[in-house]
Amino acid sequence: MESITHFINNPEHHDVLAIIKGFRNGAVYGAKIRFPHALVMTFLFRNESFKDKINFIIDATKAHSKNLAFFVTIYKTLMYLQKKINGGKEQNAHSFIAGLVGGYFVFGENNNINQQIVLYVFARIMMGLAKLPVTRGTIEEPKHSFSIFAAVVWGIVMWLFRHERDTLQPSLQSSMQYLYLDSDHWYTLKNFLWHNK
InterPro entries recorded for this chain (predicted)? Predict the structure, then answer.
């Protein structure tokens, strides 16, 4: 055990072991994020047998976990290789190139899991890019900028849901169906207060 501890703490092995630990962290984080999300969304919105629901939750969790694990591995490996090729120095573009390659090969398949992950990341980068000029001191943040941004986002999503619903992601459609359309219908006190239908 002592020799293993010595090996993993040896600075010469750090970069390669960081790739392995990155794979591990990607797998664990993907499972931690997807399992509760899949559990809640499946039992709220899917109408199928209990066994099918459990299988869906497991499959979604495995897919998310696997994708994050492989993306982290590709990203960290490419960062390591680029740095090594560049004489041990990291360049500004290295992270973009590594993310580009990993994103294409891991998240390039258009399926529900990848769509949710990519859209989540897209929303976060748009916020980051919007803040960039402010954090760099290029411009001063306008008053009420987030309020205006929120208003535009909600105005667009409500218009799309009302008039071009099929353009929205299926889980968003389900959520909005429940909130805005299912609330228009009831037949008894029971499905007015307790059950949706």
Answer: Pmp4 (IPR019531)
Task: Concatenate the DSSP letters of all residues of 2-58 into one string.
Answer: HHHHHHHT-GGGHHHHHHHHHHHHHHHHHHHHHHHHHHHHHHHH--S-HHHHHHHHH
Domain count of the fold of the chain: 2
Last residue of some domain: 86, 109, 132?
Answer: 109
Mean pLDDT of 77-97: 97
Ramachandran area for residue 18 (φ above 0: left; ψ -120 to 50: alpha; else beta): alpha
Q: Are 133 and 139 in contact (CB under 8 A)?
A: yes
Q: What is the pLDDT of residues 110-160, one digit of tens each?
A: 998 999 899 999 999 998 988 888 888 888 877 888 888 889 999 999 999
Q: Which domain holds residue 158?
A: 143-197
**Residue 123 within any structural domain of the chain:** no
